[in-house]
Each structure stands twice: as structure tokens, then as C-alpha cells.
Write a structure and sequence with these properties.
Methyltransf_25; Rossmann fold; globular
Length: 236
């Protein structure tokens, strides 16, 4: 596995990201819609807010969805992959949300340490980071830039893939449903087994979040390996 997860998202992978993600994650759009709804419920609908969107590349779907729901929200989009960020910029501009979005090509740690946000999202990122140390680091960096009590939406895979053979087989069938050949399915299974390192359980997700300074999370979405949670930054 590369020490730089952003290197995986070259122009060819970035170009297919939105279509491929909707196959790999059954309920891709529903997850983003519910994430926006959870944030609006936590913050109060109609309220102004600054939202940190980490891993916004690939279309900025978090911003497109939440921006349509809450016209008073402003966004800071962060992603280390240039090709993926280009896709996000194009999509956000096409939806008329560029005037409410600032783009940062890089990492959360590059943002000013004193900057504070009312909410944050980390969707589809954590399982690309190798090892628990990297996972804790990004969650702690986000927590340090949130107001006390501010909500974080975390979404991503949350099982060791080989530990759930039935889910892995169903994931392969999902690709078959969308026209993949047996050889293509085998290649995709090989890529996910070698190229990602998700937390090994829901309890591991809970421990990572609480260790980074968040309250115990509440899960609100699940799809095979995927889960989505909301957790608030601890008040102290």
C-alpha cells in the first residue's frame, strides 16, 4: 500500500470516480443526503455555519448536497489529489456553489491552526489511510479545528474485508449486477483487498473517534462494509 493514499487517485481513477463509487457503495446518494440532513438537524436548519469538508475531491458531493439543503452554509473543501480536486471544483461551479466554497489543495494540517468550524465531514477517506496512527491523526486534526460540541460526519468502510466473506461476495455480485465480467470482479476484489485498510470493526471506529476527542458516535447509515456516523467534538 502506498504511503501516500492521494497517489492512488490519478487522472484515470479520478475520471471514473463518481460512476464507480455509486456501484461500489449501494446508496451513495442516500448516504450523502442523510449526512446533510444529520448535520442540519444537529446545527439547526436555516442557521449560518462554516463546514470543513475533508476529502472533498471526486465531485464534492458533500457540498453539492448540503449546499442545496442549507443556503446559509459556507464550505472549505480540502483534498490532497489535484485530479480529484479538479473534479470537485467543476461540479461545485456547475451547481452554482463556488461563491460559498473555498478550495484547499492539501491536508487538514495545512489549514491555519486557529481556524474553527461549526461542523465537518470525512466521507470515504478513513479506509484509504494505512494504519491506526494515520487514522487517529486526521481525526485529531479535524477535532482541533472544530468548535466544542460541533458535529462530524464520518463515513467509510468499517470491517476487515476478509473477516466478512459473505459481504465481500455480495460486493462482487453488486459489480456483476452492473455488468462486470468475472475477471473484472476478481480484479476489483484484489484491488480492494490490497489497496485499503478500513477500521476492523464498529468498535474500532468508536475508539478512533473517542481517542481523537469526539463523543461516542451514532450510526445512521449502513451498506455492506460501509457505515456513516455522527459524533460531536467533546466540550473540553
Amino acid at each position: 500500500m502506498s504511503n501516500d493514499p492521494a497517489a492512488k487517485f490519478d487522472p484515470s481513477r479520478a475520471g471514473e470516480y463518481q460512476q464507480q463509487s455509486r456501484i461500489a457503495l449501494a446508496g451513495y446518494d442516500a448516504c450523502h443526503e442523510l449526512s446533510a440532513c444529520m448535520l442540519a438537524a444537529a446545527l439547526g436548519s436555516g442557521q449560518a455555519a462554516r463546514v470543513l469538508v475533508v476529502g472533498a475531491g471526486g465531485g464534492g458531493q458533500e457540498i453539492v448536497t448540503a449546499g442545496a439543503l442549507e443556503p446559509a452554509w459556507q464550505f472549505v473543501a480540502v483534498d490532497p489529489s489535484d485530479p480529484m480536486m479538479e473534479l470537485a471544483v467543476a461540479q461545485i461551479e456547475a451547481k452554482g456553489l463556488a461563491d460559498r466554497t473555498s478550495f484547499h489543495l492539501g491536508y487538514v494540517d495545512d489549514l491555519p491552526a486557529h481556524d474553527r468550524f461549526d461542523a465537518a465531514t470525512l466521507i470515504g477517506v478513513l479506509h484509504h489511510l494505512p494504519g491506526d496512527a494515520a487514522k487517529r491523526s486526521i481525526l485529531a486534526a479535524i477535532a482541533s479545528r472544530l468548535q466544542p460540541g460541533a458535529p462530524l460526519i464520518l463515513a467509510g468502510n468499517r470491517f476487515a474485508y476478509r473477516s466478512q466473506p459473505l459481504l465481500l461476495a455480495a460486493w462482487g455480485q453488486r459489480w456483476r449486477m452492473h455488468g462486470a465480467t468475472p475477471a473484472e470482479i476478481e480484479a476489483k476484489l484484489g484491488k480492494i483487498l490490497q489497496g485499503a485498510d478500513p477500521p476492523h470493526s464498529e468498535e474500532a471506529v468508536d475508539a478512533l473517534l473517542q481517542g481523537a476527542g469526539f463523543e461516542p458516535p451514532t450510526r445512521f447509515f449502513s451498506s455492506l462494509f460501509w457505515g456513516a456516523w455522527i459524533a460531536r467534538r467533546k466540550a473540553n
